[in-house]
Write a structure and sequence with these properties.
Blueprint (H helix, E strand, L loop, with lengths): L16 H8 L4 H16 L4 E2 L1 H8 L3 H11 L7 E2 H13 L2 H12 L6 E3 H11 L7 H15 L4 E3 H10 L3 H12 L5 H17 L15 H4 L11 H13 L3
Antiparallel strand pairs: 1-2, 3-4
Helix pairs in contact: 2-5, 2-11, 3-4, 7-8, 7-10, 10-13
Amino acid sequence: MRKESSQKFENKEIFDFDEFLSNNQFPNLHLLERFLKDIFRELSNTNECISPETFREFINLPSYTADKIFKVFDKADTKSLNSKAFLDGMLKLYNGDFQTLIKFIFDYYDFDKDGNIEYDDVNQIQLLILPSQHHSVEVFKFIKDSLDSFFEEYKHMSYEIFVEITENFNSDFFMNLLIYLYTNKPFSNEIISYYNYDKRLGEEANLADGRSAFNCNKDSDLKKLGLKKVQTECNLYEKRKSFSISNQYNP
């Protein structure tokens, strides 16, 4: 029988997931959709789809991470994203509830899309997102011990088991990746608010001729809007990982 992993770590933090979403997701779904639709139009230019290369430039994460997100979005395996795939993927990742997000994280870990995740795949991703200042023998051992506890007797793990363990025993491998993706998302809530305010003023000024106020190009205006990589004031991943190392690991 599985033993709750927190038994090993007496000072394990109680993480308020609802508060995390409230602090990091944009509160107005309609405005977020409007923003993302305009972003898609600019990224796709005259085409109807976004290529992996364009998506990689937009998301502005390491190539491996960007490509993994693209593959989760590209459920039809077309090697491109149409407007529906882009919008659905962005909304699920950056505005989803727990059930939506845990499915996204599982799919991210599922390298070959066979409905199971592997120990080595999760370990590889955890090491890739680990900040360089935390690279040490002790931290690597901490990750290994946590993975050993998480997978326990499972060689392969199904989605149902991943959800059960995450909900009842250990949420680290769900939250670590999610916090990393939210901390490094390609826009901020402030940018969306500014964009919608600016667009509303532009629409009022251009009502007579119907011109759009959002006529930007990828090289200049997208960068000006901050879509190339917004660094949040509080690096949540750093905060959580530092807590995990200092309060959970007992050398």
